[in-house]
Design goal:
Repressor_TetR_C, DNA-binding, mainly alpha, 0% strand, 217 residues, TetR family transcriptional regulator, repressor, Tetracycline Repressor, domain 2, transcription, 55% helix, Arc Repressor Mutant, subunit A
Length: 217
């Protein structure tokens, strides 16, 4: 029987007090997902990894879906929204937020699916949303229209990150795109060879931002 070739899990520093916390468990779960992938994750493995009875996790999270909500919150915290350019133009703020969100998610490709499939309702996320809508309102954009804008930006950014993460995790190797010189080499394949999977992201952001310059119907 061969040894498990998986790399060791780099868990966050444990809490100083002798009890687990929700935040520590969420970041430890994220570390496990980063290392072994989402499919191999379980609550029992998390409990064993942090050195507690596996059932101890259930004293902080009702079930795995509840824990994944915490993982999504940990990913949001990593964006560090407090250092965004809040004093600058709103378009710069929105663009920088989306770039940070994309980069954060792509540092954790196995966990993008977790973030993409649940709303983030942490106090930090809610406060950020209120602060962003307030800034746009002060610049003359009604809150409902501002919310439409940020929904579009979030969906575009998370969807883009998910597509890139899937490619990086192996989907790109299954591509059947014909190569130059092949009888099947067509205009689509030629255009694909002239691009990269992520070179349209900022162009897409610009299109969304300019599209919302027009008043809502």
């Amino acid at each position: 029987m061969t040894a498990d070739p998986s790399p060791p899990v780099r868990l966050p520093e444990p809490p100083t007090r002798p009890t687990l916390t929700r935040e520590y468990l969420a970041t430890a779960a994220l570390a496990l997902i980063d290392t072994h992938g989402l499919r191999k994750f379980s609550m029992r493995k998390l409990g064993a990894a942090v050195g507690f009875d596996p059932m101890a996790v259930y004293r902080h999270y009702a079930d795995q879906e509840d824990l994944f909500d915490g993982v999504a919150e940990a990913l949001f915290a990593e964006i560090d929204v407090g250092t965004l350019p809040w004093d600058g133009p709103w378009r710069r703020l929105a663009r920088d937020y989306c770039l940070r969100l994309r980069d954060t998610l792509l540092r954790h490709p196995h966990a993008v699916q977790v973030f993409a499939t649940r709303p983030v309702r942490s106090p930090a996320s809610i406060d950020t949303g209120v602060k962003m809508l307030t800034k746009l309102r002060d610049d003359g954009i009604p809150p409902a229209q501002a919310l439409r804008l940020f929904r579009c930006l979030r969906e575009f950014t998370v969807g883009h990150a998910l597509a890139i993460a899937v490619t990086r995790l192996g989907a790109g190797r299954r591509s059947r795109r014909p190569g130059p010189g092949s009888p099947d080499y067509n205009l689509l394949a030629e255009a694909a060879d002239a691009t990269t999977p992520d070179d349209h992201f900022e162009a897409g952001l610009t299109a969304i931002l300019h599209g919302f310059e027009q008043p809502a119907p």
